Amino acid sequence: MIALISRMTALAFAGLAVVAISPTTSFADEDGALKVTATVPVGKFPAGVAVNPRSGNVYVANGMSGTVSVINGRTNTVTATVTVGGALGGIAVNPETDTVYVTNETSNTVAVIDGRTNTVEATVPVGLGPFGVAVNPRTGNAYVSDSGAGAVSVINEWTNTVTATVTVGARPFDVAVNPRTGSVYVANSGNGTVSVIDGQTNTVTATVTVGGLLPGVAVNPETCRVYVTNGTSNTVAVIDGRTNTVETTVSVAGFPGLVAVNPRTGTIYVTSGANSSVEAIDGRTNTVESTATVGAAPFAVAVDPRGGKVYVANERSGTVSVLTTH
Fold first, then answer.
1. Distance between CA 196 and CA 211 in Å, rounded?
2. How many structural domains comprise the chain?
3. Which domain covers residue 213, as residue numbers?
4. What is the structure's pLDDT at 301?
5. Does any domain span residue 36?
6. 209 found inside a domain
7. What pLDDT shows up at residue 18?
8. How many Å separate Cα 210 from the centre of its chain?
9. 3-class state of residue 4 by DSSP
10. CA–CA dist 173, 188 (Å, integer)
11. Predicted pLDDT of residue 30
């Protein structure tokens, strides 16, 4: 129960827990560029979604079911359900090893799932209130934002142990990794900053002030640009990862949630809790180029860079919307 309250509190500062949104089945935006092609039922309150572009499998952390749904990206059907227990939050996958990481707020742990057998192979204790998780496939390290501890736990994939704990800003919520540079970006929702961690030394090398409540962060390794959602100003801050400065801000729909980037196209995808939609931002012009209506209370979003599909976890609907771009 404590973990569930923590999760709902986190949604409140992102603007989602306090908005009454009705489910919808609309699936086309005005210009037809971004549209929903399938809706996949999963568990209760899906809070996280991740894609393995090599296998095409999609992993969904069902926050109130304590399970992970495995979706076949070709058939858009659930092929397996992995029982973890507790209140689950963020989820990430290492495509090199097909290892899946899912945070558990009830037990302050991270469940490590073998994506080949869909079984839990380890449970790793981390700090208080874990939510965000990201993986560097080049090093095998996983990074977990411990919201209640104001820190990031670094998990070694080979030993499934925490090898370092890095102090960051207040209430770190989401985390992203640039595998090319090894830099780790942490959205600190409590003080409106982004902490930049050197993945080799596990030290904070820069702190970027954005302001507002920051639920989501993503990075494009091709351009070294970092995208951070701001629930206070309804914007996305664009950070130059080379200089660690805010280049510009992009206005988006109300109560933006998490964010994802397709490095092949440079397109950024942001969920909106205010109108049950997902917006596509052109990474070259920093303008919203398309919008599609999805399920109720969309929050987490992931992209398959190979196929271009976008997956949105609709928390109140208990579904995942599958979108394509044409």
1. 16
2. 1
3. 2-6+42-271
4. 98
5. no
6. yes
7. 32
8. 19
9. helix
10. 6
11. 41
